[in-house]
Amino acid sequence: MYYKSLSIYKYLALFAIILAAGCKAYKPIEPQTNSPMPASFNANADTLTAAALPVNTFFKDAFLLKLIDTALKANLDLRAALQRVEMAGANVKYNKSLLLPSVEFNATAGLERYGDYTMNGVGNYDTNLSPNVNGDKRIPNPTPDYFIGFRSSWEIDLWGKLRSQKNAALARFLASRSAYRLLTTELTAQIATAYYELLALEVEQNIINKNIKLQENALEIVKVQKLGGRATELAVQQFAAQLSHTKSLKYSTAQQITETENQLRLLTGTFDAPIARDTSLLTLNMPEKLGTGIPSQMLLNRPDIKQAELELAALNADIKSARAAFFPSLTLSPYVGYNSFRAALLFDPGSAVYGLIGGLTAPLLNRGRIKADYAYKIAQGKEALYNYQKTVLAGYQEVMNNLKGMENYSQYFTHKQQQVTALKNAVDVANDLYVVGRATYLEVITAQRDVLDAELELANTKKNIFITDVNLYRALGGGWR
């Protein structure tokens, strides 16, 4: 009796050691930045953020809004992202169902021949000799085994392992929704960027065509002057070369227009639909100044930051689930139905059976695998934290870059306008002086080339202002509502 009690204590001690090994305290990894965030983006920051503006309020161009609306309905990447949300939602339902018992209808049939020198063989032979067993109750050899009824299995979530798996799935579902919003934001920004690039290319095309006409007139003038002995063949060839260069720009720009149109068709999910647009980029009003809000608002509005935070929450739940794997698990397996070794008597009331099996299992030899999985999940959690910190840092820098971009591009555009005006006057003066012999043909060519370059750069700067405005809106977390 003493030795039996001692043996029981040994098993209890071993069981306590197993439990203690899994009870190591776990501190969740909190979503925090690696250094304190600034209180504002700049000294004059507005507390109201433009991220709250809907797309149809932020954008004023009806053509652009139509493109965005088409893309939100037909873009293939967006549709694929929506399916990822559906998959994540189904995964939540699956993990939630693990907390409930499973019930299955079960119908089985088997046949076993027992040997004479087996426990079943000796036991069944002795049973059949009993005077209490006769007729249909005698056990045949081979012995059929028929069962029809319901079987259930239910793992009792003692330590929260299944609950943590459900929480991880829920966090990933919410993260997939944030990923969908992020893609919506990126798609909106891509369409707006391509649209303004297309407007700028249209302006460039008009500027090039205008300059081609001016240079054709200049070439005709120098040809006439050559006939009159006032110009040389060298001057004619120089003017012709400049005209050919400008004409080549026309076809280069035409190719860029084609590629940009097709980019917009790809984003909107169409093959050859016409891309309607406004062609007055240079006369469009400058974008209104956006309210940036404060950096902490960016954490709430940017879908990529929210997605990174939810991924971290999912991994925290994974770590809890991996930690719970150290503890014993309790599984209940009830069943009810009919069981018989004679098919004709399967549904006889005497064949009715029911039972309940409870099993308690604890990891022992496979603890190394559980420890490795636990360490792996912790490393994943730390990686998710660093990704979160990187996303927050990148978001802040994007806002700052685009804030300064709006300021600098606006100043650049003002001075470039003054330059274009001065260069246009210079072309007129150069042409007049050339006619009266006070300027050389090289001065005329240089003046024409300078004004062409300046006008193209002016159009590009206006485009950059609108694109930077779009990027600032996106960086603040707008564009997905």
UniProtKB/TrEMBL annotation:
Subcellular location: Cell membrane
Keywords of this entry: Lipoprotein, Membrane, Palmitate, Transmembrane, Transmembrane beta strand
Topological relation to the membrane, as annotated: Lipid-anchor
Organism expressing this protein natively: Mucilaginibacter litoreus
Name this protein carries in UniProt: TolC family protein
Any Pfam family: OEP
InterPro entries xrefs: MdtP/NodT-like (IPR010131), OMP_efflux (IPR003423)
Record-linked Gene3D superfamilies: Outer membrane efflux proteins (OEP)
Highest taxon of source: Bacteria
Similarity comment: family membership: Belongs to the outer membrane factor (OMF) (TC 1.B.17) family.
